[in-house]
Amino acid sequence: AQSVTQLGSHVSVSEGALVLLRCNYSSSVPPYLFWYVQYPNQGLQLLLKYTSAATLVKGINGFEAEFKKSETSFHLTKPSAHMSDAAEYFCAVSTDAGGTSYGKLTFGQGTILTVHP
Amino acid sequence: ETGVTQTPRHLVMGMTNKKSLKCEQHLGHNAMYWYKQSAKKPLELMFVYNFKEQTENNSVPSRFSPECPNSSHLFLHLHTLQPEDSALYLCASSQVGGGPQETQYFGPGTRLLVL
Prior knowledge:
Number of strands of chain A: 12
Helix content of chain A: under 10%
Oligomer: heterodimer
Structural class of chain A: mainly beta
Largest interface: A-B, 29 and 29 residues
Strand content of chain A: over 45%
Radius of gyration of chain B: 13 Å
Largest sheet of chain A: 6 strands, mixed
Order of helices and strands of chain A: EEEEEEEEEEEE
Number of helices of chain B: 0
Mean pLDDT of chain A: 92
Shape of chain A: globular
């Protein structure tokens, strides 16, 4: 079985400050990891994903995440927050364990990011 | 239209009503998904369709009935729902064949309120 834990349901930062959203996963097989963002009244949009290539993954809007197997973590960072980054962020995991040709995502609880002027 | 679209965006229904949610993807994908997003709970996968065949049903109550007439369209038929079924219902699609690393593309969701 696979699971995801996002530490901190709410994170608040000032505009221009570092953004760090934490994600830890549990999986008995190598995982594929995703970060999605959800703006109010919208669906989920992919920020970035880890697929066992480079451990440091760069995504859209200046976000990046680093896969650390020893820490079972995939934290999301952005050097300088912008007001437009305010949204809810979801970490998700899928694996090959099911032998399917498509993904079965398991999501974390989500982290709401607030950016103050 | 581009991406994944869902209609209606908002729906209010009584417990005795029957309604349907519609999802359409314009991405040429062959897998489609229904998710439920409730307050204070993680997104829950409900159903998966792979080339129009249902391949996953995560113990969803029978009052939710999915239908996938072709690879571009997905429906969720609702009947005799309960207030606890109030949630945001999200549709997603992905390419088949690339495995679990394939990106799922989400629609904007239908906000459902059951009175």
